[in-house]
Design goal:
The complex is a heterodimer of chains A (227) and B (501). With 227 residues, chain A is mainly α. Helices cover 45% and strands 0% of the residues of chain A. Chain A has two domains: 121 residues, no CATH class; 79 residues. Chain A has five helices and no strands. Chain B has 501 residues and is mainly α. Chain B has 19 helices and two strands. In chain B, strands 1-2 form a two-stranded antiparallel ribbon. The chains are: A mainly alpha (227), B mainly alpha (501). Chains A and B meet through helix 1, helix 2, helix 3, helix 4 and helix 5 of A and helix 8, strand 2, helix 9, helix 16 and helix 17 of B.
């Protein structure tokens, strides 16, 4: 039962957030309070979509539907953007390379894909306007009645980025330790010392079994020669 | 009889101590991840892929098959004892299984699930042995246009038949195809969507995509909605069944197998439809219909058998045609490609020993799973108490390790995070994951076959239509795509006429 005392902080220190509005995910983690500043630049990442500025009030006929999920227009915008990007890439960057062995060349498939993406984006937008919603994925540990906990997510992304930056200079054992410890912290575990021990043990075990035992690519970093 | 000989050779290959060890390792890991919330067989295989580069492909494949089968066994434990099915395939099991557990019959529910899974798994694997070789014979006779059509069908089927929203399915598929496009075009050598980044020239590694979408995306999504209190785990002792339970279980097992195998084998398969069908069938045929909804053992036995039979069915198109019909099969195909095998009908002739050893290992794995699950169920149930921060921190930890290990470049970690955020967004907006993975894996192959077909015709579009096979397949695709219209203009008026008449 040693592990049952996790997440002591849950629900206590988080500021109440408006549930429907979602901030986008800017890659600035590190500071835990990042999402508390309410007005981050919204259009940084279209996939999560902010409240859509482009499509205004097409949702007329959905009557008394409970809170239409407008952020979905962000997905449509994202799809259309990707489609446009592919077409631009195909028409400007890909060279002309048609030969008798390949009468089609490298261009038509991307262009077709781009067009299809834009078509799907439009149909998607129509579906959203008519009140269509996607069902968020459920799961054993997923509590969909709570709003998205951006603090946890941003902290996790932070731990992830720290690892990505440090893995080459410091080596897997150190960066992996930081990653595991940071992720456990982000997820609400507050047994700092015990987590550190677990993190170090896990990093060492994985390094020795996989890097040295199975020949998997993991850097030793500054500990080169010591491990 | 040739196949029987091959199968026996396969058995001879499997029973080496090393291969048995990997089979045991696979089924143990598989059961564990099936029991554990938030982590499934597809994610596990993806996480372990980089680790297997140093292993013999046969051993890695035996382990993966064990994980695949084991995940099906483990999933039922969670549904029965916790009433929150992790995999979509065990949703139906939870309906009656958890009621049984609450009524103090958890032991019987677990027993009928485990024994039923064993019976179904064994019969379905036998069916696999019988069905696959003729299918391979047929598949070898297909040309590039037919292949192209088959792949189109599998795109359409995975996208349009499964899931509740077609447009969201197609969005997911197209994103996957786009990811598959990145890198140097295999035919012309031109860079596509690389934006001048040398790290993207070889394309995004399938491992990074699978780990990013399955592991990182899932971990971030769960972290965003983590339950404050995990559910109540119903305590359980040694699983066992009384005489009455056996009598009520064996027919549902067989019927579940009959439903599960064919559904697993068709491109739009998966375990959701057959488990649900099995449940309704048992409900209709039961001599104790009043018990349904209050913990009827038939409602556990049938769907669990269906679920395992469909797992074996999934391997038929995977081995015979190189087509994935569920997420785990998709990642296993990616694994084959990584090891340098060409998935498709030729795999059976070129790598005969590998394939038959794999099939033989399925029989062994099934037996091991029965032994592992029946006496050890209480131990597995204890896994459900793992503190969630450790579980999800561990997933991110191993995801990072695996993705880095592919190319040993930190660039892949940033890519992994981007894909994780994509997976997060898809879960938030209800975009299905499977079409994306199928798109990434099959997309490049479909383009290759399509261009090969057009090469034969000198670029004329009629080159895409080959023999009668492609005609039939295009017709099926058309029906699937137009089904909503068919439903509106043909089925509904007909039904209306029947009602009024």
């Amino acid at each position: 039962m040693s592990g049952m005392t996790t997440r002591p902080d849950r629900g206590g220190d988080q500021p109440p957030r408006p549930p429907a509005v979602e901030t986008s995910v800017p890659p600035i983690p590190e500071q835990p309070g990042a999402e508390r500043t309410p007005d981050l630049p919204g259009a940084a990442w279209p996939a999560t979509g902010d409240v859509p500025p482009t499509v205004l009030e097409p949702a007329v006929e959905d009557g008394p539907a409970p809170k239409p999920d407008r952020a979905q227009y962000g997905v449509c915008a994202f799809l259309a953007l990707v489609g446009g990007l592919i077409i631009v890439d195909a028409t400007t960057r890909i060279g002309h390379a048609i030969s008798t062995a390949d009468p089609i060349g490298p261009k038509p498939v991307p262009i077709l894909l781009g067009v299809l993406l834009i078509i799907v984006a439009v149909i998607y937008a129509v579906d959203v306007a008519r009140g269509g919603t996607g069902e968020p994925e459920a799961g054993e540990d997923v509590d969909l009645s709570s709003p998205i906990d951006w603090r946890t997510v941003l902290l996790l992304i932070g731990a992830f980025l720290v690892n990505a930056v440090l893995i080459d200079p410091l080596g897997w054992v150190i960066s992996g330790t930081i990653l595991f410890w940071g992720s456990a912290f982000a997820l609400g575990n507050r047994h700092y010392v015990r987590n550190l021990l677990i993190a170090v043990a896990l990093s060492l075990v994985t390094f020795y079994t996989f890097a040295i035992g199975l020949g998997v690519n993991l850097p030793a970093g500054v500990l080169q020669g010591i491990l | 009889m040739d196949n029987l000989g091959n199968l026996l050779d396969g058995f001879a290959n499997v029973v080496t101590p090393m291969n048995l060890l990997f089979a045991l390792l696979g089924v143990t890991i598989g059961t564990a991840v099936g029991v554990l919330p938030g982590i499934g067989p597809a994610m596990t295989v993806a996480l372990l892929l980089p680790v297997t580069y140093g292993m013999e492909p046969v051993q890695a494949l035996i382990m993966f098959a064990g994980i695949f089968y084991g995940g099906m066994y483990g999933g039922s434990t969670t549904s029965i004892l916790l009433n929150t099915p992790g995999e979509s395939s065990s949703v139906v099991t939870a309906i009656e299984g958890n009621k049984m557990a609450k009524a103090g019959r958890a032991a019987q529910a677990l027993a009928t699930a485990a024994i039923g899974s064993f019976v179904a798994g064994t019969i379905a694997t036998l069916l696999l042995v019988v069905v696959t070789p003729p299918m391979v014979q047929f598949a070898i006779s297909l040309g590039a246009p037919d292949y192209f059509a088959v792949m189109l069908l599998s795109f359409v089927a995975v996208t349009a038949v499964l899931g509740s929203s077609r447009v969201r399915g197609f969005a997911s598929l197209l994103i996957g195809l786009t990811i598959g496009l990145i890198g140097i075009d295999a035919v012309s050598g031109q860079q596509r969507l690389t934006f001048g980044l040398p790290q993207l020239a070889d394309g995004i590694d399938v491992v990074v995509v699978a780990v990013g979408i399955f592991a990182v995306g899932e971990a971030l999504w769960i972290a965003a909605h983590l339950r404050r209190k995990s559910g109540e785990v119903i305590p359980v002792g040694q699983p066992w069944m009384g005489k009455q339970d056996w009598k009520r279980s064996w027919k549902p097992w067989l019927r579940g197998t009959a439903l599960g195998f064919p559904f697993g084998a068709v491109p739009a398969g998966g375990a959701e439809i057959p488990t649900f069908l099995s449940y309704t069938t048992e409900k209709k045929l039961s001599k104790h219909p009043e018990e349904f909804g209050r913990g009827a053992i038939e409602g556990v036995a049938g769907p669990e058998a269906a679920n395992n039979a469909s797992a074996a069915g999934t391997l038929v198109p995977m081995l015979a045609l190189g087509l994935p019909t569920n997420a785990t099969a998709a990642v296993m195909l990616a694994a084959l490609q990584q090891w340098g095998f060409q998935p498709g009908p030729l795999l059976f002739t070129r790598e005969s020993a590998l394939v038959w050893t794999l099939i033989a290992s399925l029989f062994i794995g099934n037996l091991l799973l029965l032994v592992l699950n029946l006496p050890l169920a209480p131990a597995w149930a204890r896994l459900l108490r793992i503190p969630r921060p450790y579980l999800y921190a561990g997933i991110i930890f191993f995801a990072t390790m695996g993705a880095y290990a592919v190319n040993a470049q930190p660039f892949d970690l940033f890519l992994l995070l981007t894909l994780g955020l994509l997976g997060f967004g898809m879960r938030r907006f209800g975009l299905p994951i499977l079409p994306l993975i199928v798109g990434v894996i099959l997309g490049p192959r479909a383009e290759l076959q399509g261009r090969r077909a057009l090469q034969l015709s000198g670029g004329e579009l009629h080159g895409l239509v080959g023999g009668w096979v492609s005609w039939v397949i295009y017709a099926v695709i058309l029906v699937v795509l137009l089904w909503p219209l068919v439903g509106r203009f043909v089925v509904r008026p007909l039904r209306g006429r029947l009602v009024t008449g």
